[in-house]
Amino acid sequence: xxxxxxxxxxxxxxxxxxxxxxxxxxxxxxxxxxxxxxxxxxxxxxxxxxxxxxxxxxxxxxxxxxxxxxxxxxxxxxxxxxxxxxxxxxxxxxxxxxxxxxxxxxxxxxxxxxxxxxxxxxxxxxxxxxxxxxxxxxxxxxxxxxxxxxxxxxxxxxxxxxxxxxxxxxxxxxxxxxxxxxxxxxxxxxxxxxxxxxxxxxxxxxxxxx
Length: 210
Ligand code: TZP
Ligand code: MG
Prior knowledge:
Elements: E1 8-12, H1 22-31, E2 36-39, H2 46-59, E3 65-68, H3 71-76, E4 81-84, H4 91-98, E5 103-108, H5 111-120, E6 124-127, H6 146-154, E7 159-161, H7 170-175, E8 180-181, H8 185-188, H9 193-207
Parallel strand pairs: 1-2, 1-8, 2-3, 3-4, 4-5, 5-6, 6-7, 7-8
This protein binds 4-methyl-5-hydroxyethylthiazole phosphate (TZP) and magnesium ion.
4-methyl-5-hydroxyethylthiazole phosphate is lined by residues 128-129, 133, 135-136, 139, 162-165, 182-186.
């Protein structure tokens, strides 16, 4: 069965920015009841990524566990899904390799790309950067929260908002209609990752009732 991405805080790893490493960060994220975990590793070689993914797969049995970029790793560890961007394999190649029961998330930057991703069959879109960020060096220009609103008016699949999200601007992202939000530097660089995610989850609960 395909796992569902529920609303809430969608946790993404970053070993370069992390204080305690991906494994400890994910343990903290799970304690904070995140709605999904994405293993994103842009720094290590394929062997290390596979080894780490094996450990993370076991840890993340209660939430959807997706792998960024590495299709072969996603398959090898039986991840719940794969997240792809414009420089990765195409959606149709990924779907062919993973079959109908795995989650495929697609990064988008415009309404047109978002609608195309939904039409292709993507399970969710990652929209960003919403705000300026230095975490992703090749990030496109920030799209702002108006685009979240626009996309949510005409699309059904979950929208995961990412890029430059902080405790200060998260309410605006949630009120605009994001189903999930991510904050990489906003969490993994902090001394207590669980405590930090708790704050986003609280904002999510408060602002999604508005
Ligand atoms: N995709 C778009 S922006 C971004 C990614 C992976 C980086 C988000 O990091 P941060 O620290 O939450 O701005
Ligand atoms: Mg990618």
